[in-house]
Amino acid sequence: MWYSHLRPILTARQPGSRGSRAVRKHIFSKLDSLSASWSVEVDSFISETPRGPVSFSNILAVLDPMAPRRLLLACHYDSKFIPSDPSDPQKVFVGASDSAVPCAMMLELVTALDLHLKKHKQLMSRVTLQLVFFDGGEAFEQWSQTDSLYGSRHLADSMSRIPHPPGSEQTTQLNAVDLLVLLDLIGAPDPMFVNHFENTARWFDRLIAAGVPVLHIIATPFPSFLHTLEDTADKIHSHTVENLTKVLVVFLAEYLRL
């Protein structure tokens, strides 16, 4: 995970940037190399921001698009715009814990379970796994319901309109979600906090209104290096990340009955 999955993500990757495109290519490449044969697509759109219109691209990967139910594992892959230090202009914000590590963890999970997921898909199980790497999770200026969560708000609207299974008139992709597990701000040595997401952001409101349980995995209290240039790989507490990854492997295996 540390070298193959994480290292290529540790770059400035604001929406629409060269770094964002490079990270997208990296995620596509890793998923494409797996034997489970993921269906991967980019959900691109343009949204107004405090800095004008910006192009965003969510990455959506589904193990079996035809399965009636989905366990959704998500994180955001964009990094916040943090001005560089004038004394060291080459140092940029890479957002290791927020959220390069969660992205790498998701890739590690499906890599570790690849053969089991391949068999699971062949058995045409009723519950499948979907990965979502959100773009535009960070605010461009001050966090608000309008300046944040661009990718997740867009996807919530899309999923609420797309019939699932195809041809259905009663249910949508949103109705198909059993549970959303959101990996967020992971890597600090603090205890991990897991609970129902209680913010009023429209993406989560839409999920909760549709009866979808939401689990938010995040460090508490927030680490001192949050949204600073110090959120780098050397600040990541490897044992915390490795232990949580092991827990999630077992959770996925049990939930999907691998």
Name given to the CATH homologous superfamily:
Zn peptidases
SSE pattern: HHEEEHHEHEEHEH
CATH domain class: Alpha Beta
Low-confidence stretches: 196-200
At the fold tier of CATH, the topology name is Aminopeptidase
- As a percent range, the share of strand residues is 15-25%
Q: Structural class per helix/strand content?
A: alpha/beta
Gyration radius (Cα, Å) is 18 Å
Can you count the helices? Answer: 7
Largest sheet: 7 strands, mixed
**Into which percent range does the helicity of residues fall?**
25-40%
CATH architecture classification name: 3-Layer(aba) Sandwich
Quaternary state reads: single chain
**Total beta strands:** 7
End-to-end distance: 22 Å
Number of folding domains? 1
Strand order of the largest sheet: 1-2-4-3-5-7-6
Average pLDDT for all residues: 90
Shape: globular
Protein name: glutaminyl-peptide cyclotransferase
Domain Peptidase M28: 58-199
Organism: Labeo rohita
Catalytic activity: N-terminal L-glutaminyl-[peptide] = N-terminal 5-oxo-L-prolyl-[peptide] + NH4(+)
